Amino acid sequence: MRHCIYPGTFDPITYGHLDVLARAAKLFDRVTVAIAHNAGKGPLFTTEQRLEMVRTSVAALPNVTVTAFGGLLVEFALDQRADAIIRGLRALSDFEFEFNMALMNRHLQPAIETIFVMPNEQFSYTSSSLVKQVAKFGGDVSHFVPPNVGAALKAAFAG
Length: 159
Hints:
Layout: E1 3-8, H1 15-27, E2 30-36, H2 47-57, E3 64-69, H3 73-79, E4 84-88, H4 92-108, E5 113-117, H5 128-136, H6 147-156
Parallel strand pairs: 1-2, 1-4, 2-3, 4-5
């Protein structure tokens, strides 16, 4: 049974993330969405809120589970008995960072492969940071995030 980890902060999850996830779910028997605690990034939503948003958003994908993790990703992947790590590449600007991370992960744990997946081109400019910025100023984010996430963003920036 082939198993991959799709890690990220997912603060919040976007349709671009879900597109990459749907592609991974076709390639692997099991996919674990691994939400990084990563308080250093100063997330808008708590880990528990992000877990709930992602679980709701992936409910239609039967081979996908959602959990949180801290520490080294490759150690988490080993603990989960995963074969690979899935990373989304939106644009060339993502490549250098992701490439370096993949090489470090390979150095730390050669048995875990990193696979880069490109989302549909309509999501190539979408990022959680941009979505939060649009939502903060009252813009319409319905084309970028599922309804439950849009409602959470609206509530987070109300007042």
